[in-house]
């Protein structure tokens, strides 16, 4: 990692750290925070924008139709687990800090559920038990690597007529409640206008929030279905029963989606407020020729197609983050990426809702997405807008497939340093407790082995290495000196495999459930061997 040095001589003595804290300076009491090297990072530090301390770097892992994982239905437990470990290793190697796992693709489950049957993408048969709990396994493996796991749900989709609707498990909600199902074009959906469906979807989401140690809940763009020519979404019965207070069916449909979003948000806040809730809508809210507040675009509008009023969610604060799917290149006249990024940035400005951009890794190689800079061209524009707090890539298989070279450029130009995940609103809670015992030992091969004490309430640990002999806390204000983020349940140790020349100090900080960061713990210092 970081700067290489000449290999240590075989006769170099081992140097133990082993300095549990910095020696007091002139005028410092040995018990003071300054003397212990535990000064909080000041708010007025100047941070390097090239190395943001916090940034969303995520990828979607799609299970529907076995797009990503499992790679095919019917793999045994060991093969499925090996595939997922390999994906998480690749995500870590690419500098990502979050994955968005598709846990409810067609009103079924990639987790042990008493409410809905196992997804067919696991065993090839809906309701088929894979012999383990994939979500529990995924959370454990992601956290061990210092990676967040967000559980991705489709609220309403039941699946395709062939094979999904023709082979529904007896325990599927659409089989138990046939009145909930609306068939439209070649797919089936749970009726968003039925209050019982809304309550069911909320219960399913909260069941996962309550039982699994996930970091976030994520909805994609599937609310009401994308329009199909010549087809009618037949929600007449629900509209007659529940739409009387609305001037139009469109307003009623938007209210159905808004209500689901607000209720899920409220229930998450009441249950585990550190679990962040976000949505990745279609990239166009409204075009300017439909609404002066809309974007200078000419494409399909999520406001009137999926009845997804994203601006209402931002205004009302019923989401923690938004990930518009901006799957178009810069200069595309119908939906120009260079028009949409500043437009979405303006919508979230000053609201407290985070903005991340959905990136089309699956399109690399197509017109507008060619060459090694296919993705860095997009991130270059993002960097000009401070409201953009990161990116999500669809999907993870493409990052080491068709987009491998483009992601290599992203890694070199934008992900050369790790980044902490964005923090949840902790509501003014106190900062996490400190790491109080940090040891650093140089090994015979010249690497540096760090170890530290367990801290109650830690979710992740962040490891820093600062060159020089000083104590400036602003050195930890950005990610310039961040080496890694590690899991709290893994071994509390880290090996700096490419230590820097000259004197250095190491710090380890704590990230709690809210991903709030502690002050830096006492420094462990090493001098050149």
Explain this structure to me?
- Residues 1-22 form the signal peptide.
- Residues 55-366 form the Glycosyl hydrolase-like domain.
- It comes from Streptomonospora arabica.
- The strands form four sheets. The protein has an eight-stranded parallel β-barrel, surrounded by five helices.
- Strand 1 (56-61), helix 2 and strand 2 form a beta-alpha-beta unit.
- Helix 2 (77-93) runs parallel beside helix 4 and helix 6 packs parallel to helix 8 (249-271).
- The protein has 14 helices and 18 strands.
- With 529 residues, it is of the alpha/beta class.
- Residues 1-37 have low confidence and may be disordered.
- The radius of gyration is 25 Å and the shape is globular.
Entry keywords:
GH, globular, 529 residues, 4-stranded antiparallel sheet, Family 10 glycosylhydrolase, 25% helix, alpha/beta, disordered N terminus, 8-stranded parallel barrel, signal
Termini, distance in Å?
A: 18 Å
Q: For the CA atoms, what is the radius of gyration? A: 25 Å
Q: How would you classify the helix and strand content by structural class?
A: alpha/beta
Overall pLDDT metric: 92
Question: How are the strands ordered across the major sheet?
Answer: 1-2-3-7-8-9-10-11
Let me know the number of strands.
18
Helix content: 10-25%
Low-confidence stretches: 1-37
- Structural shape: globular
Number of helices: 14
Q: What is the percentage of strand-forming residues?
A: 15-25%
In quaternary terms, these chains amount to single chain
Largest sheet: 8 strands, parallel, barrel
Protein name: Family 10 glycosylhydrolase
Signal peptide: 1-22
InterPro entries: Divisome_Glycosyl_Hydrolase, GH, GHL10, Ig-like_fold
Pfam families: GHL10
